[in-house]
Amino acid sequence: MKKLVEAAVEKFGKTDIMINNAGLMPQSPLVCLKIDDWDRMIDVNIKEILYGIAAALPYMKKTKIRTYNKFFFSSRV
User: Fold this and answer.
1) d(CA 75, CA 77)
2) Fewer CB near the last or first residue (10 Å), C or N of the chain?
3) Selection from 54, 53, 60 nearest residue 21 by Cα
4) What are the pLDDT tens digits along the chain (77 aa)?
5) What is the DSSP letter of 43?
6) Residue pair 53/45 in contact by the 8 Å Cβ criterion
């Protein structure tokens, strides 16, 4: 994410907006207890959003741009 944001700033001079869109949903019922799938889902659905925020925030603070983040969660039982 950091390299992506740096490339955008290098090309455009600043960041005015960042849309965080990451999502992964294992295709198994929760009762199957596929813990590795849950860990991967957390890595993608939460951590990647945070990595994006961490990468863009220093540049966005310079331009006083506000960020908007929306999380969607769903599950199957």
Assistant:
1) 7
2) C
3) 53
4) 899 999 999 999 988 777 777 778 788 888 899 999 989 988 888 888 888 889 988 888 887 666 555 555 554 44
5) I
6) no
Dihedral (C-alpha) 51, 17, 22, 46: value to the nearest 10 degrees?
40
pLDDT score recorded for residue 65: 60
Cβ partners under 8 Å of residue 25, min gap 6: 41, 74
Does the predicted model carry a pTM greater than 0.70? no
**CA-to-CA distance for 73 and 17, rounded, in angstroms?**
23
Name residues whose C-beta falls within 8 Å of residue 10's C-beta, 6 or more positions apart in sequence.
none
Distance set, CA 66 to CA 16, 17, 43, 76 (Å): 9, 8, 24, 34
Rounded CA gap, 60 and 45, in Å? Answer: 22
